Amino acid sequence: MITVMVVEDDPAFLTRFCGIVGSNAELELFAAVGDLASARQAMSEAGPDVLLMDLGLPDGSGIDLIHDTARRYPHTDIMVITVFGDEDHVLASIEAGATGYILKDSLPVEVVQLIKQLRAGGSPISPVIARQLLKRLKPADSTPSTVAQGTPLSPRETEILGLVAKGFSFGEIAKLLGVSQHTVVAHVKKIYQKLAVHSRGEAVYEAGKMGLI
Amino acid sequence: MKPGRWGSYRHTTHLQTPWHLLVELRLYILALALAMVLAPSRCAAETGAPALQLDRADFVLSDASEPPPDTAAWTPQRLPDNWLVSRPGAQGYGWYRVQFDLPRDPDQLYAAFMPLLETFGALYVNGVYVGQTGDFELISRAEQGPQPFAQGAPPVLLGFPPRLFSIRRELVHAGANTIHLRVWVKPGTRGAVSGMTIGPEPLVRAAYDHRFFLTATGPRMIVVGSAGFGIFILLLWLRRRHETMYGYAGLTALAFAVFIAGRYVVTDPPIPLPYWGLVVWSGLEAYIVFMCLFALRYGGWRQPCWERWLWAYLIVSPVIDYASFVGIGGWVPQQWWLMTFVLTSVYVVLFWTIAWQRWTSETLGLAIAGSFKFVISVNERLLAYPIELPRYQPYAYVPMFMMIGWILIDRFVRSLNESEKLNAELEERIAQKQTELARSYERMQAMQRQQAVVEERGRLMRDMHDGIGAHLISTLSLAEHREGARPEVVAALRECLDDLRLTIDSLEPTENDLLPMMGNLRYRLDERLRKQGIDLKWKVKQVPELACLTPQNVLHILRILQEAFANIVKHAHATTIEVETGLDQDGKHVYIQVRDNGKGFSGERTGRGLASMRHRAKIVGGRLHIEPSTVGTTLNLLLPIS
Fold first, then answer.
1. How far apart are CA B329 and CA B335, in angstroms?
2. Are strands A77-82 and A50-54 parallel, antiparallel or unpaired?
3. In chain B, which residue's Cα lies nearest the Cα of A125?
4. Averaged pLDDT for residues B241-246
5. To the nearest whole angstrom, how far is the Cα of B473 from the nearest Cα of chain A?
């Protein structure tokens, strides 16, 4: 059983996501709230397995919540609900501690699949995001400009991220590298974590810089 | 004046002694070294067949104003004759008698040439007066006056003057002829009388001219040149005070000019002889001292102690010289003149030391030039030197003169070249900086453009997110939940959203990398294709960066590909789509190939869509090829690399 919490200020979509979770036997709704305060309250005692959340909430930025949750409940997988899956939102979320994102209009099947995939290891990354990750996590000393210091990507992670950036799917990458898809997914999750570790200190700044509220 | 002062004329020389042979040898070597200045000085007279060299004479000390008869007390006297040596203490009038034979009567003007007659002289040929040097009237007037030699005193006649007396041809005849030379020697001076060359006037005049050039014209030129050179360098030094080396070089040239003028050019000193001697000697001493100082500075030695001693010598020397002239002080003032040789040796040693330390043509040249002067001085002043031979002392400074000039020119040219080079380098550096500036300006502009794009994108994104996006999402949600909603509406709404996402994707910074952009398209479309049962084979390869990937162009390319996929999904009924990228054969384009295995389409059906695709390809600067066939269609989009 995977417990899922949904934070979404649009009632229609809140209902929709709750419906998707509720209609699947393997998923259990942890909580469904429409603002930050309620979300914090809901998670005051314990965290869900998966947190689905919108970033633009009426009483503040979801980034802060992601940040807090990732710190308090390291085992919670956080997925950001986004309309476009665009770089700015997704990267900021990942940097705050999210490990994947989901398009707001995803079909119920896709949502369930993504949640399971996320629980199993990692969620897919779009090539543009992958390239941004590559840029930020380049092996140390190549570019001192961005975050990358302390935990640069391993050669394998770099390779995988590079292939993702070229548009290859996890399955194709697994085949190309001669490893299981599971390994690839695990690598990807690690990459997410690295970015989060990197930029925890900067997340707030970054979020502010990107004008995300 | 003491005889020692003027060096070698203390000695008489006899042509046959071994000593004289040695002198001749020295002269020969010297003559080689002086090849430039020295044309063969005695040749003309010696080789001219009819010219006679006369060096045997008879002498009688006599006041007679006409040639004394043969019965007078003639004594043989070899020429050249130097009164200070052959009859010390003697002064006043004397007569020389020279005899020679001619085979026949001459048929042209005759002449007698004396390389040296440094006193008053009147020449008589066979008893007939032919000419004189110096005004004998002055002598008799002075002798009769109350104060002999004070007012209107006869001049001293210095400076090694050569003399030429023309002789009318009827005065000489075949057979024995006699020449009488009347001289008057001023007290305290030497009476220097050289041998005589008698012959046809043109031949003898040539020898005279040559000798005159060597001993009169040349030294005058040297004096003018040296003085000019000295003033020039001193002016240069005045503008560059810190280069004291040049100051000393200029003083050296000036002092040398004074010395040569006094010793070799001025025949009638403007001031009494002892004082005149002081001027000349001080010139020489100053020349040597300044040369030492120049050598010290040139070698980069700062020796205040040495320099003080040199200046002290320069100041003390005239006093000691004067003592020597007036004959007081004994041995030291008498031999003080040898100090010039000591100091000359000093600067020669200095120059050679410099040359030894820095072996360059310049230092070597200076060392040789310094030695040259030294050798000439030793030869003509320290060693015995026949008085009738020409003196090369005036020319001794010429090599040094040229060396210093050359050093000046060399430094001047080099500093000019260096400043030119520096300027050129500076200009180059400025140009470099300018291009760098231009480049960084371009970079800044590019960054600004990019920044503008990012800002614009952020604004658009927020707008779309909160506006169109939110509305579309709500509408979609509504449509999906409304019972009996038409699936076409839902599909249209989703297409709308996809389109919006495509636009947003196109705004992502590509950094001229094609693949992430295409990957993102795939990422967007994959799910839908899978649902259609279409297998997407992704065969992309890394391609060079494309300069054309601006957000607008990216959108065009994405739309072309989107259209291609849409066509396949809608019309082709394909099961596989292969997407491939790579470098085109021409190496100037990157191709994107989309190949399906569905049924090929004919042009008219997708005519409008195709036209729009082609149009977009053209805007991007690329080309679009579509090859329909019965088994699938191949679309090739060529994009220019630069």
1. 11
2. parallel
3. B523
4. 87
5. 7
Joined tokens for residue B338: 């040898």
Q: Residue range A26-46: average pLDDT?
A: 89
- DSSP per-residue string spanning chain A: -EEEEEE-S-HHHHHHHHHHHHT-TTEEEEEEESSHHHHHHHTSS---SEEEEESEETTEEHHHHHHHHHHH-TT-EEEEEESS--HHHHHHHHHHT--EEEETT--HHHHHHHHHHHHHT-----HHHHHHHHHHTPPTTS--SSS-SSSPPPHHHHHHHHHHHTT--HHHHHHHHTS-HHHHHHHHHHHHHHHHHHHHHHHHHHHHHTT--
8 A C-beta contact, residue B211 and residue B46: no
Which of A32-46, A102-116, B223-237 bottoms out in mean pLDDT, i.e. has the lowest? Answer: A102-116
Contact B52, B79 (CB under 8 A): no
- B125-to-B94, B113, B169, B178, B180 alpha-carbon distances in Å: 16, 13, 11, 6, 6
Would the pLDDT of B603 be above 70? no
- Asked if B501 reaches chain A (Cβ–Cβ under 8 Å), the answer is yes
Which two structure tokens, joined as six digits, stand for B68?
Answer: 């004394």
Is the ipTM reported for this complex over the cut 0.90?
Answer: no
d(C-alpha B624, C-alpha B556), whole Å:
12
- Beta-strand ranges (E) seen in chain A are 2-7, 27-33, 50-54, 56-57, 60-61, 77-82, 100-103
Residue B638 backbone phi and psi in degrees, to 5: -100, 125
Please give the pLDDT value at position A5: 93
Q: Taking a C-beta distance cutoff of 8 angstroms, is the pair B111, B162 a contact?
A: no
Q: Please indicate whether, in this complex, the C-beta atoms of B501 and A127 are within 8 angstroms of each other.
A: no
Reduced to 3 states (helix: H, G, I; strand: E, B; else coil), residue B41 is: coil
* Cβ atoms of residues B81 and B193 within 8 Å: yes
Of the partner residues A85, A88, A126, the one whose CB lies closest to the CB of residue B458: A88
Taking an 8 Å cut-off on Cβ atoms, the answer to whether A87 and B464 are in contact is no
| Chain B residue with the nearest C-alpha to that of A19 | B481
Amino acid A6: pLDDT? 92
* pLDDT-derived band at B151, boundaries 50, 70, 90: very low
Of the listed ranges A145-159, B20-34, B245-259, B586-600, the least confidently predicted one is B20-34
Q: Which residue in A has a C-alpha nearest to residue B501's C-alpha? A: A84
Q: Which pLDDT score is estimated for B125? A: 92
Residue B532: burial class (beta carbons within 10 Å; 0-12, 13-18, 19+): middle
Q: Which residue bears the tokens 């066979």?
A: B126
User: Closest-CA residue in chain B for A89?
Assistant: B461
pLDDT in tens, B171-183: 998 889 999 999 9
Mutate to test the interface with A, among B454, B520, B532 (most CBs of A within 10 A): B520
Query: Using a CB-CB distance cutoff of 8 angstroms, which residues of chain A are in contact with residue B497?
Result: 83, 105
Cross-strand pairs, B633: B628
Helix (H/G/I), strand (E/B), else coil: B59? strand
Q: How far apart are CA B206 and CA B203, in angstroms?
A: 5
pLDDT band of B118, cuts 50, 70, 90:
confident
Partners of B498 on chain A (C-beta within 8 Å) are none
Ranges of beta strands (E only) in B506-605 are: 535-539, 576-583, 589-596
